[in-house]
Amino acid sequence: MHRPILLAAILALAACGKPPAPPPAGPPDVQVLALVAEDVPLAPTYVGRTTPDRSVELRARVTGILLERPYKEGEPVKEGDLLFRIDPREFQAAVDSAKAKLAQTEAQVVKTAADLKRTEPLAKAGAASQADLDAAVAASLEANADRDAARASLVKAELDLSFTVIKAPFAGLVSKSTADPGTLISPNLGVLATIDRVDPISVEFTVSEAELVRWRAEITAGRMRNPGTDHLLLKARLVDGSELPETGRLAFRDVRIKPETGTALINATFPNPEGRLRAGQFIRVTVTGATGVGYVLVPQAAVLQTPAGANVYVVDKDGKAEARKVVMGSWFGDRWEVREGLKPGDQLIVDGLQRVRPGLPVKATPWQAPRPDDRTTGRPDDQTPPPAKP
User: Fold this and answer.
1) How much of the chain exceeds pLDDT 70, in percent?
2) Residues 14, 20, 21, 22, CA torsion sign
3) Alpha carbon separation from 309 to 36, 296, 325, 349 (Å, rounded)
4) Would you say 298 and 348 are in contact if contact means Cβ atoms under 8 Å apart?
5) Domain ranges within the chain, ordered by starting residue
6) d(CA 315, CA 332)
7) Terminus of the chain with fewer CB atoms < 10 Å: N or C?
């Protein structure tokens, strides 16, 4: 009879010791960034290859024995420096002979002119025949023609003599020579050496047709300010990561798109006073000066990548989370351009995304960007960004 009473008392005590049920969970805490339109400097980077600003193949223009080659192969030379000297004695003799021949013809010109001067009045007076006058005129004309031919021969002989000396047409670097002193060289021998001007030095790189079309569309739409080719500056970075202190400028853009590659060739020039750049090097070229207008930039942490594309969450006017599909553009430091899907004034959720559900309320507080020394993730400057969708 006491057992049921005891059991009831135990159950009552157990019920009194049960903890109360937890209150329902509130909206998740998230941090949001109020988006604004920004003007950002545009600085696309390309891989370029250095080429000489000028390059000349040095060839012999006369045949003879190479007497000397005073330059040091691969070393800089100044404009006008002697590079090759061919034995000039044969050519000097030809010049002397041409001078003597010219002197003979000039003397003959004087003689025939005097004969013609004497014959003309005699022919008028009937003391000389017409045939004598014609012969005197012909002799004078022939003497003048011989003098002109002798002058031309002298000019050619002097040119040949001058060709025995090959000098640097400009300051630059001279390659290894194909002939040593004592070699019989001639125009048929081919290239003796090549001289390259490397200060300034040219850099060639290519830009895709799609990028050129996009730039034109951006300028037309007012999303890009282009200061003009003359105001675009270039910076060069070597393979070891070091940056050249000199600034380059655009010099030439090919008027055609190569159908094989779908790219246009761009040429720029860089001062190279210390010779740090040699022809054939690969470098990274960054073009600066253009400005993007009204760009919306978001932190990388706010973008969720899915097989269907990129997504973000924003807080709508009712304080609820709203999912948005977005189209991403280029990287700017550690931020990503959003080309479609967001607009200035949107409240972008950056932190707390793992607790967000579409359509449910959230508790939003302003997002605080991490200090540079607190960031453990980010895209290095030289890392290729994800491709921008058209």
Assistant:
1) 88
2) negative
3) 23, 18, 7, 18
4) yes
5) 29-43+293-374, 45-52+196-291, 65-85+167-195, 89-162
6) 24
7) N
Q: From its phi and psi, is residue 348 left (phi > 0), alpha (psi between -120 and 50) or beta?
A: beta
Which residues on neighbouring strands pair with residue 167, listed in sequence order?
82
DSSP readout, 67-93?
Answer: EE--SPTTSEE-TT-EEEEE--HHHHH
Q: Architecture of 65-85+167-195 per CATH?
A: Beta Barrel (2.40)
Among 188, 163, 168, which Cα is nearest to 178's? 188
Which helix (H) or strand (E) covers residue 212, if one does? helix 209-220
Q: What is the end-to-end Cα distance of the chain in Å, rounded?
A: 86
Q: Distances in Å between the alpha carbon of 231 and those of 42, 95, 150, 300, 332? A: 13, 54, 57, 32, 21
Q: How far apart are CA 93 and CA 104, in angstroms?
A: 17
* 65 in Cβ contact with 168 (< 8 Å): no
Does domain 45-52+196-291 match CATH 2.40.10.170?
no
pLDDT tens series, the chain, 390 aa: 455 554 444 444 444 555 555 555 678 999 999 999 999 998 899 999 999 989 999 999 999 999 999 999 988 999 999 999 999 999 999 999 999 999 999 999 999 999 889 988 988 888 888 898 889 999 999 999 999 999 999 999 999 999 999 999 999 999 999 999 999 999 999 999 999 999 999 999 999 998 889 888 888 888 898 888 788 899 999 988 889 889 999 888 877 888 888 999 999 999 998 888 888 899 999 999 899 999 999 999 999 998 889 999 999 999 999 999 999 988 888 899 999 999 999 999 999 999 899 999 999 999 988 766 544 333 334 333 333 333
Work out the mean pLDDT of the chain and round it to a whole number. Answer: 86
235/89 Cα distance (integer angstroms): 53
User: What per-residue confidence (pLDDT) applies to 383?
Assistant: 37
The pair of structure tokens assigned to 22 is 């937890």
Q: Which CATH number fits domain 29-43+293-374: 3.40.50.970, 4.10.320.10, 1.10.101.10, 2.40.420.20?
A: 2.40.420.20
